[in-house]
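Table S2 (text version). Query chain:
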Amino acid sequence: MRRPPYFAPLLLAAVSLAAPATADAQETARRTPVVEVVERVGPAVVNIAAEAIVREVDPFFGLFFGPRSRRAQSLGSGLIVEPSGIVVTNAHVIEGASRIVVTTRDGRELEADVLGSDRESDLAVLKVEGRRLPAVPLGSSADLLIGETVIAIGNPFGLSHTVTAGVLSARGRTVPSERGERLFTDFLQTDASINPGNSGGPLVNVLGEVIGVNTAIVSGASGIGFAIPADRARRVVDELLRFGALQPLWTGLRLLTVDPELARRYELPVTRGALVYRVWPGSPAATAGLREEDVITAAAGRPVASREDVTTAISTVPAGTPVPLTVRREGRTLEVALRAERPPQGLGLEVLERSVGLTVAPAGEGLAVQRVTAGSLAAEKGLRPGDRVLGANGQRVAIAEELGREVLRGLDRGGLLLAVQRGRFVYNLDFPL
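Corresponding structure-token output:
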């Protein structure tokens, strides 16, 4: 039976629909935003191999032959942020390394020098020499959207340039480090897989902007990863490039986290926030008008659930930048602006003397206790002149400036840990500040 002529266009259309798409059309369909981001950012992601000399004692022969040395290597990731060869990574990736090698995606192996490292923020800056290095600068983390797509690029378990994708799960997370000796604040949380070796690599949004620096120093359940926000990382990187170390900020505040027990003890009008426990005379906090027993309920427009929320808001911006604070005082709500400053010369040692009762002086290649104030915390711990101060907050200190810097960092955390030697023994002593 002969078909009517109007069937011909329908048959042609059916044939056209069934025909395979061209190669160009297929590639266009597959070129998702994630693919474009990886092509743009991937060349700037590097593998970092950090080599260290580890001394260990053999349990059987160490008594006779002494400690042995071996080479240990850790792997991590990094991001070239400037074409001149500036690389950002995690501090724990290169900690203790005697040799650092950066491998680019095109296979170049470049020796790296450490320009600066800060253990508290877990960030480090390296310098490599190379021609036509691809670079992607740090972006912004100020306007992140919960649920937006994020991409992690790095070298987990040594698998070079691995890409994982997920969503931004949360902001402002406070989490302890794997060993529990540090508390990290303001972390980004994502369900994009971040494993050992990803540390130091970028967390990127679908626009190709670096919104964070991944870190695997925090142990957690499967499917939970963390990153340092780009805004905080930028301030740390800038100071490491300028000074070689993160410069402390001085507010003159001693804060306590408000919980139900603290709220009952002080008869506070709120059960969440940061209680102003102490204000140092003449400090930026005093200039801002803050008083003892004020409760800070918001910082930089975000609710405050702990004292770490306040210190995070302050440490994210450069010194001298006003940080708006919402304060409850005697049933009233006030708005103040706090400007953190660089601490005056010798302030850390002054805090050590006034709060702990300890005065130190140079002794040989280190520091020794010069005077202990009667009735002070140092006297209660049994310290006496001649004791040697080896470290503070887990960091070795050899000069008074280093000790003063750690005292100011301890002031933000509310405590100072000193390593003190007397004779053949070393004691770790904890002091509230």
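Notes on Table S2: Residues 156 and 196 are 5 Å apart (CA to CA). Confidence is low (pLDDT under 50) at residues 10-15.
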